[in-house]
Amino acid sequence: MTGTDVERGTRFNCGDYNYVVIDKTGDNTYELQCETAGAAPNSVYGDMTPIDYVQGLESAELTQLLIPGEDEEDTETFRQRYFDSLDARAFGGNIQDYKEKVGALQGVGGVKVYPVWNGPGTVRVVFTTSENKVPSTELVQTVQTALDPEQNHGEGLGLAPIGHYVTVQGVTAQSVDVSMHIEFKSGWDWDNSQSDIYDVIDGYFAELSAAWEDNDTLIVRISQIESRILDLDGILDVTNTRLNNSSANVEIAQDCIPTRGTVTISKIVRSRKPGVQQTDSRARKFAQRLFRAGRNAQWN
Q: Which of 73, 83, 178, 279 is most buried, most CB within 10 Å of its CB?
C-alpha cells in the first residue's frame, strides 16, 4: 500500500472477499486477514479497493499468501484420521506426537520429524502448507513459536516438552525443467495447448507434493508426464521427453517438493490432414518410375 499509513482494522476488498488489516510488517507493507473462512480465498491476488476511507492512499495490492485458510474437515477425512491415530500412539514428544500437534496448526499440511538431528535433545520439524506448497517465512516462524520459541529454546514454553530444542523449517522447491517433442492434431498448436500442458505438469507435481509426508523420496517420472499430456485434446504424440536436460527420471532432494521450471517444445510437428497421403520426394519418384515401367510393359 502506498501513499499513507493504514491503521489496524481498516477493511479492503479484493475480488469476492473482504480483508482487514491486522499488522504493519514494513514500509508500505501490511498483514491482512480475510473475513471469509476456508481455502477459497487462498488463490486471490491483485488490486485492492478500500472499504473504509483512507486519506492519501494511492494504491493497494494483495501480493502474497502468508498462512493458507482451510476448509472444514469432512466426516470421511475425520474418520480416517481417527483410525490412523489408533495405529500410532502419540506420547510426550515422540514423533507421532509432534506430527499430530504440528499438523493441527493453521495452514500446516504434511509434517516430517527428525529426532536427535543435531545431538541429544534436538528435533527438526519440516512441513508443507495445507495446500502442499512451500510455506512462507511468516508461517514457519509461527510454527516455530508455537512449538519452541527461539528466545526460550528448550524451556517447554511451547508445545514441545522441556529439554527439546526444536528447529522448524519449511520444505523448499526443486525446479524441474521439461522438454519434449510434440505432434499436434490438425488445428492445434503450442499457442492453444500451452496452458493445458502447464496445468497437467503442475497437477502431477501437486500430487507428488501431497505424498511428500509419507515418502522418503519423490521421483518425477517421464512416463507419467507423457501419459498425462497424451490424454489432452489436440495431442497426437509425445516423444523425446527430457527432465533437466536428461532422459532419466528426477529424484527430488530430501525435504523438497517439485515445481515446474522451463517447459520447452523442441520440435512441433502438425499432423497431416485426414485422407491425404504424403510421401517424401524419393518415394514419389520411385512410384512414378514403377508406373511408367508398368505402362510400357508388354503383357502376353
A: 178
Q: Give ∠ CA 117-96-171 in degrees, rounded to 5.
A: 55
End-to-end CA distance of the chain: 96
E strands in 131-275: 165-170, 172-184, 218-220, 235-243, 250-252, 256-270
Distance CA 175, CA 243 (A): 10
8 A C-beta contact, residue 65 and residue 136: yes
Q: What gap in Å lies between CA 236 and CA 131, rounded to an integer?
A: 33
State yes or no: pLDDT of 288 exceeds 50: no
User: With contact defined as beta carbons under 8 Å apart, do 81 and 184 qualify?
Assistant: no
CA-CA distance, 22 to 11, in Å (whole number)?
Answer: 10
DSSP-derived secondary structure for 85-134: HHHS---TT-HHHHHHHHHTSTTEEEEEEEETBTBTTEEEEEEEETTSSP
Predicted pLDDT at 298? 40
Is pLDDT above 70 for 229?
yes
For Cα atoms 89, 91, 97, give the angle at the middle one, nearest 5 degrees. Answer: 80
Rounded to the nearest integer, the mean pLDDT of the chain is: 86
Q: What is the pLDDT of residues 30-68, one digit of tens each?
A: 999 999 998 899 989 899 999 998 888 888 999 888 988
